[in-house]
Amino acid sequence: xxxxxxxxxxxxxxxxxxxxxxxxxxxxxxxxxxxxxxxxxxxxxxxxxxxxxxxxxxxxxxxxxxxxxxxxxxxxxxxxxxxxxxxxxxxxxxxxxxxxxxxxxxxxxxxxxxxxxxxxxxxxxxxxxxxxxxxxxxxxxxxxxxxxxxxxxxxxxxxxxxxxxxxxxxxxxxxxxxxxxxxxxxxxxxxxxxxxxxxxxxxxxxxxxxxxxxxxxxxxxxxxxxxxxxxxxxxxxxxxxxx
Length: 243
Ligand code: NAP
What we know:
By secondary structure, this protein is of the alpha/beta class.
């Protein structure tokens, strides 16, 4: 079967490797944002499609039989495009998306819709660990009455202002290290996206143990699709007559 995987995640890479191993013709599409990404087996396509018309045209021209949206839960535009292009082209879609995290028993999260709302939710004098990536950093930097520890994989292009400190590091993160980091910096608030998965979940457990308040930015809405949350379930869905 000829399968296009919209990638950019560990799960997308694992799925591609498994499908290639099973003899399928797999093309993984990457947006091309990450320098030096770990590449999956199979064929690669780098760069944008040009919205819903571009993706629909590609699906038809390349003779794609199944489309898998295995993008990050916060790549909302691509997931919206996948639903619309599947409908327009008749190519069936499976969405592979990690299950969201849920608060630990007794833990309360402030759930917000955007980085702007997350920044507004912080009280004066908060010391916040920001784990939300580059997008929306300006919303937080405008809060000069707070201090920020900004943890990112790759440093942003512009230097941060004096009330923010940058650390670059790469998951996975361990609970003991997350606790030590939060204690060392006197963190009062953790700002996170609800990415799900195990690689970065320890920060939530650390926050629960240290009574650090959690401001959680909720996932975007993408529209209806046949959705699974594990690579195994995606393989089953692709093997069956999904609709
Ligand atoms: P986005 O806002 O949903 O996408 C913006 C545009 O980038 C899309 O409309 C599409 O352009 C292009 N695009 C996105 N993913 C693509 C893909 N896999 N292949 C080809 N084109 C793609 O996405 P984003 O948040 O910028 O994320 C970009 C990529 O990074 C995604 O593949 C995602 O899996 C990965 N990623 C994102 C995050 C995150 O937090 N957002 C975290 C880890 C990895 P056209 O409309 O022109 O086709």
